[in-house]
Amino acid sequence: MKTVEIYVGGVCHGNPGDGGWAAILRMGRHEKVLSGAEARTTLNRMELQALTGVLRVLIEPCAVSVHASSRFLADGFARWSGLWTARGWSSISTRPVHNAELWHGLIGRAQTHVLTFARGDGPEMARALDLAREAAGAR
User: Fold this and answer.
1) Thinking of the domain 2-137, which architecture would CATH place it in?
2) What tens digit of pLDDT does each residue of 107-131 get?
3) 82 Cβ partners below 8 Å, 6+ apart?
4) Do 23 and 50 touch, CB atoms closer than 8 A?
């Protein structure tokens, strides 16, 4: 199984507001940069879009090390998604889970990969966030 290291970042100017996401993928000496933007969105949605965008371009099962600046993706994926599924995709307060369609897509795409999560920091994380800001500004 190939190993991929990714740095994902999302930004949002307002909540909701104009948002952007970016991901830097590294496999050995190869690098790919992805980014996108949405109007009237949220930071959490942009972070989900970043990770989903990465998984969309992987063409074979990989061990994926995800570096993100917040715990949102790791907690949602590893801790909360099982609880949401058991509750019929309702939160503990019985409200529908925000961005459920993105979580479903992410979980579906992740099934062929092995994901681990790490706290993102350092120059690569800063670069991913800068790229996300650029994408948001291009809206």
Assistant:
1) 2-Layer Sandwich (3.30)
2) 999 999 999 999 888 899 999 999 9
3) none
4) yes
